[in-house]
Hints:
- Helix 7 (266-282) crosses helix 12 (393-406) and helix 12 (393-406) packs across helix 14 (428-447).
- This protein is globular.
- The chain has helices spanning 28-39, 92-103, 138-153, 198-201, 210-228, 237-246, 266-282, 304-310, 318-329, 331-334, 372-375, 393-406, 417-422, 428-447, 472-477, and strands at 13-23, 41-49, 52-59, 66-73, 85-91, 116-129, 159-164, 167-172, 179-185, 189-197, 288-292, 295-303, 338-342, 345-349, 354-360, 363-371, 412-415, 451-459, 464-467, 478-485.
- The longest helix is centred in the C-terminal third of the chain and has 20 residues, at 428-447.
- By secondary structure, the protein is of the alpha+beta class.
- It starts with 12 loop residues before the first strand and ends with a strand.
- Mean pLDDT is 86; it is low at 340-345.
Amino acid sequence: MNQNKLTFESENLVVDWISFNIQGLIDTKLIANYLFQNFGFNYTIEKRINGKWKSESSNSARQNQFKVSFRQHEYNPEAKSFWVGTKIDFSGKTATQIYKAMRAQKFDWNIFKPYRLSFSRFDLCYFRERKSNEQKGDLELFMNKCCQKAFLRSKKNIAEYTRNHQGFILRIGSRKSPNYYRVYETRNGLRFELEMKKTILQDFLFIDHPENFEDTLTRHFYEHSKKVLVLDDLYTDWLIHYSRKTDKPINSLVTSYLTSNNLQTIENQKSVFRLLQFLSFSRRRPYFTKYLLSQKYYLIKFPVKEFMDFIKIKNNNHYQLTQIRNFLQDLKQNTPDITIFSDDYFRSAASIPFVEIQKEHKSLVAKVLIAEQLYWYQYPFSFPSSFISYQTNYELQVKLQIIQCMSNNSLEKVFHATDFLDQFNVSTQKQANIKKLIVESFYQLQHDNRIKNKFKLVTKSGKVQETNKLVPLKIGQSKSIRFYEVL
């Protein structure tokens, strides 16, 4: 079973530039006329004369919205031009349009068959709309921090930001390097753009494997963005969101349900945690695809004992087996509906419409039908395997509290220690055990590189103490603990 591949559309990426190189002398007009006649692309064919590019021929129609450029390079040692061939540039909306045609297999690649064709450049762009919480000076500060990050990584890094009549522009990297990054201000927000050169693209066979092409380039765009941009900033909320929904092992815990469930009673807490455990377990199972009208579902089948082993229930006695069976039988009532709504369309479907449990060879076997949206739900955080189970109610409550803390959008998290501990009317010894559980849970997150080895303990008087290691005594003396997610 494989995770769904990423696409430009699913990750809100836009193709902003495509360049091809064709080796040697060719009949440029043959390709230009194909684009003009089949896609409505106006064109210009240019040659370098006396060091300047001058138009040799062109064709245009008033109704055409797109334009493609051809530049013919000839051998000219005096002008330091040694490569012989033609560069074809699709920029902006023209690049977006031609890529759609290529992706939909409406582009005839045979037009290039006689020639040695290769990718020269491919630009992907993410647009972030301006938001109401942005303040004057925030953007310049963000760009300055990105430059400082580049300089800290290496003194050889090139990073600068400037301002023109349209707004701020951040440039990271050399224009000649395989990856050249730009962030520039527009009237409505920010464009984050990665310019990828031939050395990055040369191994991708887009014609035969467009899904692999998009998945690979999408991951490359986001990973390079994480590498060059500062993450703990309001302008990179989109990047944090991507990281949380993709950088996860398949058996990690789902956390989005915590914001919409009542966790006041221990029974509700157990119910929510059990649902998180089941969703994590289900993603490890093979499935069969089923349809109910237009809604896609996955049918998974598993021995109930395997689920119990997964969540580390040590005593597989009759009582525990009954508890798990009751939980599975109640899944239909305890999961939210999938709702799709627009101006001219509405659909509501059960996320788990079918559960069946029966004996097979003296063992209980469950069949569960799960809606595709729930099965592949992209959740905001993942945890080590130690968080998937608990042995006592106190351990459950500690882990749920930390999970809730981790579910906010900031890289800085806050664990409200005083409020959490005050809810337990228990002996001093049990309070000490709960504090130990808190320390152990944070250690597990540190050990698996989910959080940084850095904490800020805020006392009840407001003083802040920094430490890289928690101890139970300090937990009791702190109003809150601030810690930081690792992406």
